[in-house]
Amino acid sequence: MRFPKPTKLRTLSQIVFFFLFLFLLLRTEFRGSLTASASETRLAYPVSLFFQFDPLVAISNALSSHSLYRGLLWSLVVLIPTMFLGRFFCGWICPLGSIHHFFSSFKSESKRGKQLIDSNRYKRWQTTKYYLLIASLVAAVFGTGIVGWLDPFSLLVRSVGLSILPATNYSLQAALGVLERSRYASVQTLGSILHFILGALLLSFKQPHFRLGIWLGLIFVFLVALNFRITRFWCRALCPLGALLGVVSRWSVLGLVKNPEHCNDCNRCLLRCQGGDDPVGGVPWHQPECHLCMNCVDECPEHGLRFQFFPGQKTVGTSLQRRKVLTGLAAGAAVVPLMRSTPGFATERNERLLRPPGALDEQYFLARCIRCGECMKVCPNNALHPAFSEAGIEGLWTPVLVPRIGYCESSCVLCSQVCPTGAIWEITEKEKGWSGDVAHADKTFRLGTAFYDRGRCLPWAMATECIVCEEWCPTSPKAIHLQTVDLIDAAGNSKQVKQPYLDPSRCVGCGACEYACPVQDRPAVYVTSVGESRSRTNQILLNRRKG
Q: What is the pLDDT of residue 370?
């Protein structure tokens, strides 16, 4: 019985895990009814599965929050085997690594001979990822989750979920629209069939739009394009998870055995080497850099390379320069005080910094949030977006509510369900408290408070009837109430107009009023973060909290 080659098994593994990741990412979207009971308002699949198996997320979360959020202990399933097998995760499982692996295969078509071989030799700049790992973990010790900027799963979900998939959805919808509007019945039928199939597999329930989506997409495309110059540049030089697994795999018992007597110096083993670990004969093997892609074994015409347990041959570990290690330590220690010494973190926080319901207080939120974008992807109203300047440099790409684009649904707690690190604490619809009487509910989650700009409000400024904000207000009793007043219009005619007033004790800051306000450009009613329940200091009512 002949067994398939290791490279074929690895390719099959990469395909399976990539499509599993894509499936879970596509399922990070609620397609049910938000009016259903809280027990039904849940996603059917564990969309945070890959984050739970990410050792970098688990370690940084433990360092920054001094605790380990539920499910992250599963990362030991990856970490422990790495100690014995090496960086199998990078070569066999990681979906971002598989994308880079795929596009790197096209590099061999543009480079030939010595140029391709030289590009796949070990380079000193490959140690950059270790310094980034050191800086990220030290920063986590000082209480920040900026490791999510470079964590491969955070990068992939953020880039694909908030940029690539929305762009793909828009393109497919436009193409299907052309088919379905065709004059020919057969083409219309084809368009309808494709729409039905793609609607079940790929298309979003409605077209999402995300701020900064273009930049997230361009960053991702740029990183992928680097593979045409250097094989798996991200994995070799920048990936902090790869660096962590490389450190752990330094003493693995599975290693590469080189048989010098079978080597004819053809250098074919370097043609498709993914890790830049020098599998070629005559030089030590850089074990922490190897992705276990097995391409070198498959390429060797003399069968002079093989992987075996306890190889007993000399390898080269992670060789770091002391000065650069100290620089990484200093950078990680200095970045948090520098980012948090600005006024914006304390007294002058951006008024539009509206966090999702269940979000921790800002300091603890920034410590846990890994900027993955899962909460933004799952939001049914497209209300959550990556922050740019609202939360300062440290809060880049963290979720903020943008009411003008979408509001927080009263019965929705999906963002708290998908958060992998507890930055948004999981709550129920009952705990959120927006469906009942909020006037006396001390434990109701409040995102902020709405305010009126009477100079732009139609009933106040133009004596024009408008009750949209009151109609959209979801609280019971409503936070917005109307009072009828007698006015004289410009023509001297007497008329009655209902003017809106807000009761801040009932307002939850959902943003529905701002979303629905018919006044174009700047709305006449807007929500700020003052009064948010997650903060004891950012309050407008002195009696909001007791004790």
A: 95
- Alpha carbon 350 to its chain centroid, in Å, reads 22
Q: Which run of H or E residues covers position 356?
A: none
Residue 528 lies in a domain: yes
Given a cut of 70, the residues of the chain with pLDDT beneath it are 1-4, 32-41, 107-113, 317, 342-348, 436-443, 541-547
CA distances from 483 to 461, 472, 500, 507, 516 (A): 15, 17, 7, 18, 20
At 441-456, the pLDDT tens digits run: 555 789 999 999 999 9
CB count, 10 Å around CB of 30? Answer: 20
Q: Is residue 10 part of a domain?
A: no
Structure tokens at 290: 């190897």
From 121, 146, 210, select the one nearest 401 (Cα to Cα): 210
Instruction: Report the CATH number that the domain containing residue 530 is assigned in CATH.
Output: 3.30.70.20
Number of domain units in the chain = 1
| 397 located within any domain | no
CA distance 201 to 178: 20
Distances in Å between the Cα of 199 and the Cα atoms of 172, 202, 375, 472 are 10, 6, 22, 30
DSSP one-letter code for 343: G
| SS3 state of residue 481 | strand
- The rounded distance, in Å, linking the Cα atoms of 61 and 437 is 36
Question: If residue 330 lies in a helix (H) or strand (E), which one and from where to where?
Answer: helix 322-340
Establish if 145 belongs to a structural domain.
no
DSSP string, 3-20: PPPHHHHHHHHHHHHHHH
**384-386 and 449-452 strand pairing:** unpaired
* Residue range 21-69, pLDDT digits in tens: 999 999 888 776 665 444 456 787 888 899 999 999 999 999 998 888 8
| Containing structural domain, residue 456 | 435-547
For the chain, what percentages of helix, strand and coil (3-state, to nearest 5) are there?
45, 10, 45
At 547 the pLDDT is 43
71: left (phi over 0), alpha (psi -120 to 50) or beta: left
CB 190 within 8 A of CB 152: no
Using only C-alpha atoms, the chain has a radius of gyration, in whole angstroms, of: 28
Which of 166, 132, 131 minimizes the C-alpha distance to 149?
132
- Identify how many contiguous H helices and E strands the chain contains and give both numbers: 24, 10
The CB-side HSE value for 63 (13 A sphere, CA atoms) comes to 22
Q: Are 181 and 192 in contact (CB under 8 A)?
A: no
CA atoms within 13 A on the CB side of 474: 20
- Phi and psi, residue 40, nearest 5°: -90, -20
b (16+ CB within 10 A) / e for 524-543: bbbbbbbbbbbbeebbeeee
